[in-house]
Amino acid sequence: MLRSRFAALSPGRRIFAALSCLVVAILVAVLSWGARTVPGTPVSADISLSDLDFGEFGAETLSEPRNDKERYSRLIESARMSEAVADPREVDASLSPRAPAPIPRAADTTGILADVASPILTKYGMLAGYSVVGCPPANCPTFNRPWSLRITALRLPDDAAARSAATEIEAADFAVSPDNVAVTLPEYPAAHGHWRPTVPTLGIILAHGPFVVTIFVTYPNPDLGELSTLATKALSVQVPRLDRFAPTPVAEMANLHLDSDNMLRRMVPTTRGEWSYPYISKLQTENAAGEGIYVESSGVVFGHTGAAHAIPGAAQSAGIPADAIESIAMIDRNWMIRLRDAPSARRLAAEESSYGRNQSPMADPAVPDTKCLRREGIVPVYYCVVRDGRYVAVVNATDEKTVHQRAAAQYALLVRNR
Asked: Model-level pTM?
């Protein structure tokens, strides 16, 4: 019947009908194919990963190796302790966090605490620690002038060790100068500290559970009332943070995973095919207590608070609330952030890829959602901002071609680990 009706049509109508049937058949085939489950790694619809130039960088996902080094565990626990240290903005909204520093060894406290603290912390078996500075943006990175706040938390094996360490550190530090005058805080009778009446700084130390907390405050003038008020407010924010933090049991520290949050596996490793193990590099500029050191971390992951410490400027400029930042991972000055949702990631990526003074845009690689810039300096830095979903990564290199290749590898790793 259908064939006879088709034959009865005029030649033009027969051609039109045949084409219509062909289109319908193609649509049915496409829809049928779309309903199939095809094994393999999902890729972006508008790019084939096989077409990307990775150069010397691999884009293969590495399996997390076993953690068999105590020094790795100490650094991982120190990075975890970023969640136990308050954001300086919680103490005073005018402060901006700077110089986040994991402290895996007692020797790493030099420049953060007085030199006399290191042997005492070693004696009592310090396990891990973390420190962050807060200062008004206009006065950073000259941290402790005219006013600033440094919060440091160190973990000891138990409460008794923390109390003994805090008592001995305060006594040794007090004895350094005959001008020191003892200071107590009425709201925290267990806290002890000292100052010099002609010097606008105040140091406070407090043992709280298995932790030793130090607060170092500077102010435009040696006003003990203002210094004490600021230190008290800092402790009122910091102590509850410690109470909410769950330290890894000492017996379980050796079993800490290198990549418990599956962040590092999404990043380009230092050496192709090799896991990027954790380490820190100290760029020390000043040994005086509180004046501080700058610590670069690699092969580590920081949680929500540590991530907020590390990127305050860009996130604030993009209007991203602090609770939208989930974690940050770092490998050799390259970093990656996971945000709560894709819109937040887009805003952060746009802010990170905007350019201003001493920066200029350059050609982007053939990678979706990626922008590249050149930062001028004695040695120019080429960097790319790569986004995929709720992940934002920044990769660096010393020339344009290499940074394009690294960006391609970074994008491929993000896609392959969706």
From this structure: 0.85
